Amino acid sequence: MVPYRLDVVSLSPDAFSSLGGLGIIKRALDTNIAELFLHNPRDFAFDRYRKVDDEPYGGGPGMLLKPEPIFSAIESIPLKERRKVIMMCPQGKPLQQQDLQRWSLEQDQLILICGQYEGFDERIRTLVDEEISIGDFILTGGELPAMVIINGLIRLLPGSLGDKNSLLEESHNNFLLDYPQYTRPENYRGMKVPDILRSGNHKAIADWRQRKREERTKNRRPDLYASWLSKKS
């Protein structure tokens, strides 16, 4: 099996060392289901100070990432035919489970560009296929969003999870949240496992779970519920 290739362009490559300690992600990297490569733009800066940022033309606060080191870093990466270049950006499209599923199936390589400082020189966007945000808030850099994508994508790759069926009914698949789940003990501090789950009637259990998914999504995420109704109709 050819591993899925993940390339990250980041000024803080050490931030990604924690991924090697996460069970499913570690196993996928160790068994060559996926491979992770880190590229520091400072290694591609051409001046003696390895400068990667500069003041914006026209004035304004903060510093912008310069185009030359980012372009050079991207151009140094071996490219697969089925690839996407993703920019981590607060202006980007909100990340959804469907994006992770799409990239896991349609691509063999993701190149993730992490920003810092005030943002990117606009010309860097010419390298990018998609801009992605993980929420309407500002972080100090794109490293955490990139790790979110890496985590969410790797677990979708064949062989990453012991039971591939565990992916089928997760929250956000088909726009619905997950149903309530229980384990032993049957009665804990007066809170009992619903009788239906102990009935052994698989059809009734499946119907109950689907009903609970719909109820939970309608109550907690009416936006997702509306999307589900639209897709269902």
Give a brief description.
With 233 residues, this protein is α/β, with parallel strands linked by helices.
Strand-helix topology:
Layout: E1 4-9, H1 23-30, E2 34-39, E3 53-54, E4 64-65, H2 67-75, E5 83-94, H3 97-106, E6 109-113, E7 119-120, E8 130-133, H4 143-154, E9 187-188, E10 191-192, H5 202-220, H6 222-232
Parallel strand pairs: 1-2, 1-6, 4-7, 5-6, 5-8
Antiparallel strand pairs: 3-4, 9-10
Defining key terms:
233 residues; alpha/beta; 5-stranded parallel β-sheet; 2 domains; Trp Operon Repressor, Chain A
Radius of gyration: 22 Å
Please identify the top-level CATH class of the largest domain: Alpha Beta
How many E strands?
10
| Mean residue pLDDT | 92
The name of the CATH architecture of the largest domain is 3-Layer(aba) Sandwich
User: How many structural domains?
Assistant: 2
Q: What is the distance, rounded to the nearest whole angstrom, between the alpha carbons of the first and last residues?
A: 39 Å
The CATH topology name of the largest domain reads Alpha/beta knot
Largest sheet: 5 strands, parallel
CATH homologous superfamily placement of the largest domain: SPOUT methyltransferase, trefoil knot domain
Structure description:
The radius of gyration is 22 Å and the shape is elongated. The model has no long low-confidence stretch (mean pLDDT about 90). It is about 30% helix and about 20% strand. The chain is of the alpha/beta class and about 230 residues long. A hairpin with a 2-residue loop joins strand 9 and strand 10. The strands form three sheets. It has a five-stranded parallel β-sheet with strand order 2-1-6-5-8, sandwiched between helices. It has a three-stranded mixed β-sheet with strand order 3-4-7, with no helix packed on it. A two-stranded antiparallel ribbon has the order 9-10. It folds into two domains: about 5-155, 3-Layer(aba) Sandwich (Alpha/beta knot), CATH 3.40.1280; about 170-230, tRNA(m1g37)methyltransferase, domain 2 (Trp Operon Repressor, Chain A, Orthogonal Bundle). Helix 3 (about 95-105) crosses helix 4 (about 145-155) and helix 5 crosses helix 6 (about 220-230).
